[in-house]
Amino acid sequence: MDSNTDDRKGPLSMKAVVGVLSLMVIAGTCWQQSGRGRSPEPELPQLKKAPAPDNLGQEAYRHVAQLVSFGERWTGSQGWQEALEYIAIELQEYGLEPKRDRWIDREEEMTFENISALIPGESKERIVIGAHFDTKKTSGHPDPDHNYPFVGANDSGSGVGLLLALAETLANQKNHASIEVVFFDGEESVPYAWDDVRSLFGSRRYVGQYQAGLKAGREKSPIRAFILLDMVGAKDLDIDDDSNSDDQLHRIFAAAAIACGHEEYFFEHPQTVKDDHIPFIDAKIPAIDLIDIADNPQWHTEEDTLEHISAESLQIVGEVVLTALPAVEKDFLQGEGRLALPPRRR
Description:
Helix content: 25-40%
Order of helices and strands: EEHHEEEHEHEEHEHEH
CATH architecture: 3-Layer(aba) Sandwich
Structural class: alpha/beta
Largest sheet: 6 strands, mixed
Strand order of the largest sheet: 3-4-6-5-7-10
Number of domains: 1
CATH class: Alpha Beta
Strand content: 15-25%
Low-confidence stretches: 1-27, 38-42
Number of helices: 7
Distance between the termini: 25 Å
Mean pLDDT: 89
CATH superfamily: Zn peptidases
Radius of gyration: 19 Å
């Protein structure tokens, strides 16, 4: 499918199109099939599975269900406002201080708001974990096929739900790095079809403010790595291998998946994805996108509902993130030795 194909039908199954290069410029995240695969498992280091709450996935699912109950959550909608308040309240319940950043985009004449919280660690150096909380606006478009009910259980509910569950877990354990959780607004393209300029508003705002702080000498907590959670809750979970993501982070997460016994759910489909990690990459901050988009028939359709979300899938991704974090700390924080990982094959 290309940009002229009906966007509501979702992407084609990658199992049916392996070996065919097809550019996808579609209605939210932009992606294309890539020829790069991941390194063979024997070349990856041995990581130790990190402890994770047995109910991590259930807690994440509970958050997703609550978000879905707010209905559509496109920027400025009533559901969007309810989602913002819900995230802030949950963060406060974990003992964290929500930081809210609201601004007006003059060209779009839209008000956006990011919300974040810092979990202090032994080091001031930061690892940022993010997810977007806005959903695709599927009303008011000139094409009738682009107008339909949409609650975004997977896109964006699953990323937000898992990030909240991880925030609670990380707030209750000792971390070497400081961990910042960020909930981005405005990831979705304003036009129904993907537009590189009219999308990723929240992540571009966050990175822009960070860079301005560095330039002015105000920023004393450098960001060493960024982890993005986007569409991580499907029952048929299949996290894609994004070629835009940092090679070293990819190897760490591949090793973490193996350590957790979850390798079958990770990095089988090479893709090139434009998502909220791109502003970080542009700022030379290593970033990885954990996303299941290539074989996701519910994506940007009215079928993206709670019945297609699995607490087990959320548990799987959560365990891998928690297992990867110590290696990310070791490899990316200054003063820590880099892991001896082999070059990633392309």
